[in-house]
Amino acid sequence: MRQQSLNYFKNYHRARLEELKIFLETEAWEVCPVRSTFSVHQLREFRFINSAMSAKTISQEGNRSCFTQFSVDGNPFTPSDEIEEEVEEIIDHGGIEDTVSDDEHEEDNVKDDLKHAFVDEDEGKRPPLMQARVFRQRMRSSSSTRGPLLANTTLTVLRFFGHYMRMMNVLKPIAFDVLECLSQLFDYYLFGVYDFFVKDLEYLPDNTQLSSKLLTSLKRISESFIIASEEMTPMASHSTTDDQFKVTKPWVNSAVSLTDGNTLFGLSCRMVAVESLVHLAQQFENLLPYMECMIPESKMSFLRQFVSQTVQTAPELRKPAYHGIAIKALPCDQILQRMVTVKWDIRDIKSQHSSYVDSLVQEFVRYQGRLVAVEK
């Protein structure tokens, strides 16, 4: 019976990985407007975990035979009708959390340019340094009320986590096998974000911006989980052994532009992708106590090593992603060429600054304007 359950679940897992691949390849990497108070416990897939229920209670419930729980109707691989009927309240409808007043309805008719925290008529008259300070204040004000940067695919992965953890809770004999597959969902999302948005921006030699832990994890995923080009088959995934199978590498959506300098090389898409991965890692760690009580003590080392080596290293992708954008956004080579042509004659000090200074200032002004456009 254990083997039959395991075979069924592995087929289920293959289908979820293929579904995740489709989501990654069609994702536009735009912000999914969730509330600032968003938590996985608000998703219906996690309703089986009562927020007031301790991990010990969950473990005790899991000891009840799954045959007893599902002998009459339903199965552990699909959510129950009762769960499906519950309403999720995770979407932020224009920043309105609870009730909507008449005044707030009238605000919808106001132009987008007037919806900032304030309208400053003297903005263009300020010195550049003061403009930058005001810009930072606006960024802080808007981000304090904004929910986490999530993509639609991120929510899909979180829902998959809920399905898998529910199976772990009721199918104790294969709970660890389910956990291994759950970790592969995170691996695949991590690899996709890295391959789409970070790999092309690694400028420092020998990938020194990434720790040895993260590099080891990426190498492990690439070699043991991703089908190499010479192994490509028409199938989206195929078994390599009785216990392991590989999946094809996802490809970024062709509608996502990562080469346009006017959009800072897709900075908004890169931000949504990287920050959604960081949030996914945070949610994984929040669910850790529940996962620990569902697997045998002898298998605990796998979970702790996975969290340490892979999950906790996800935020490291921020540095190469954003550092690479900063390098590409300014035409450093052109400015250096202008500096080379300057005659550094100390015997004749000019009152006017060199021309390359004007070029550099213009590039920073253009860079600031693009950042403002991304923020909007």
Automatic annotation (TrEMBL):
Domain Syndetin C-terminal: 264-373
GO MF annotations in UniProt: SNARE binding
InterPro entries: Syndetin_C, VPS50
Stretches that traverse the bilayer: none
Any Pfam family: Syndetin_C
Listed GO CC annotations: cytosol; EARP complex
GO biological process: endocytic recycling; retrograde transport, endosome to Golgi
Protein name from the UniProt record: Syndetin
